[in-house]
From TrEMBL:
GO terms for molecular function: transferase activity. This is Glycosyl transferase. Residues 5-134 form the Glycosyltransferase 2-like domain. Keywords: Transferase. The lineage of its organism: Bacteria, Bacillati, Bacillota, Bacilli, Bacillales.
Length: 363
């Protein structure tokens, strides 16, 4: 059986750190917590789980802090989490099973990262990250912000999931770090350029975001998945600026990198739906449902291939007075989010419409 060191960096996480550590304490063999300057009760809570608490002076560089945390590990493998992450019971059991079965020549293990959930609690958005890595490989974190762990060797994709359950979020932290880097004369890497553009978009600085998305895409140095996401986010910028032509161009631009993804199809469907071009909208929403996604794809937004296109098709077929088809799509949407208020309203609406049609036929 392998042994595992948990390595984390934290600052002012008193609201969530106990929940995180409680979810993993019985699975890992060592807990290493690197504190970057907490002024709340974070350390006191951590002391209930471990005495391996280390201080690290914050230098506006996440990779530096994470690499320091990895240096504290003494076990075979390193598991990393953020303070607002949780291992649910099913995933704790899976990780314990992996501890017993993992081949010693595996260098890194990826896990799903559940980022958001639909109203029914089902996973809506997830990505894959390498969470468990062999200590002796000395893999390094890279990047001042939105850092990533550079791994290699023999890799294994597990079905374990880490659930991201934040209570709050510091919206200004990341963009401030990027702006400080630029002001200091640092040249952003293509990856940092993409993530800086994301921060600008999130802060409503749409023109600046467009500039950096274009800078990223025209560099032709980005990861294909980031290229596709950049196209979607460019479309969001243009949508906020009410620039419909460039919005569509940005969505179609994603086709340069791969076959149409369900998200692109839904975006196109919405464009035509807003214009009242119902048949064109139906075509694209049906495409979203037909495309088969790789279950191990690094980024997945399940709503674009499940309830969302069905719900939109319900609206579109209702516009065309094809009520049976509209009702059928509402029922299919209901199979994913049965308690959604819109779907429950639609059920009553179609029951009334279809009943009236039957009465009209019988009379």
């Amino acid at each position: 059986m392998i042994s595992i060191s948990l390595c984390m960096i934290v600052k002012n996480e008193e609201d969530v750190i106990g929940r995180c550590l409680a979810s993993v304490k019985d699975v890992v063999d060592e807990i290493n917590i690197v504190d970057t300057g907490s002024t709340d009760n974070t350390k006191q809570i951590v002391e209930q789980f471990t005495d391996r608490i280390f201080d690290f002076e914050w230098i506006q560089h996440f990779a530096a802090a994470r690499n320091f945390s990895f240096q504290q590990a003494t076990k075979d493998y390193i598991l990393w989490l953020d303070a607002d992450d949780v291992l649910l019971e099913e995933d704790r059991e899976k990780l314990m099973a992996l501890k017993k079965s993992l081949a010693p020549d595996i260098d890194a293990v990826s896990m799903n990262y559940h980022l958001s959930f639909d109203p029914e609690g089902n996973v809506d958005t997830l990505i894959r990250r390498y969470r468990l890595v062999k200590k002796e490989k000395q893999f390094q974190w890279i990047g001042a912000v939105h850092e990533y762990l550079e791994v290699g060797g023999r890799l294994f994709d597990s079905d374990i999931a880490v659930s991201h359950l934040p209570l709050t979020h510091d919206h200004s932290r990341n963009i401030s770090i990027y702006k400080q880097l630029i002001e200091s004369g640092t040249t952003l890497t293509p990856r940092d350029t993409f993530y800086f553009a994301n921060e600008l978009l999130d802060h409503g600085q749409f023109e600046d975001a467009i500039y950096y998305y274009e800078l990223f895409l025209t560099s032709k140095l980005g990861w294909v998945e980031d290229n596709i996401r950049a196209c979607y986010k460019l479309a969001d910028c243009y949508s906020h600026l009410h620039d419909n032509e460039n919005n569509i161009s940005a969505i179609l631009r994603s086709f340069e990198y791969d076959i149409p993804r369900p998200e692109a199809c839904c975006r196109l469907g919405y464009h035509f739906m807003e214009q009242g071009r119902n048949y064109e909208a139906i075509f694209w929403y049906e495409q979203a449902l037909m495309i088969k996604q790789n279950p191990n794809a690094p980024f997945q937004h399940k709503s674009f291939s499940t309830w969302l296109p069905h719900l939109q098709l319900c609206v579109l077929y209702d516009r065309l007075q094809q009520y049976e088809l509209a009702h059928a799509h509402n029922e299919l949407a209901s199979s994913f989010i049965p308690n959604d208020a819109k779907i429950l309203h639609n059920k009553k609406y179609f029951q009334r419409i279809l009943k009236q049609q039957q009465e009209d036929v019988s009379s």
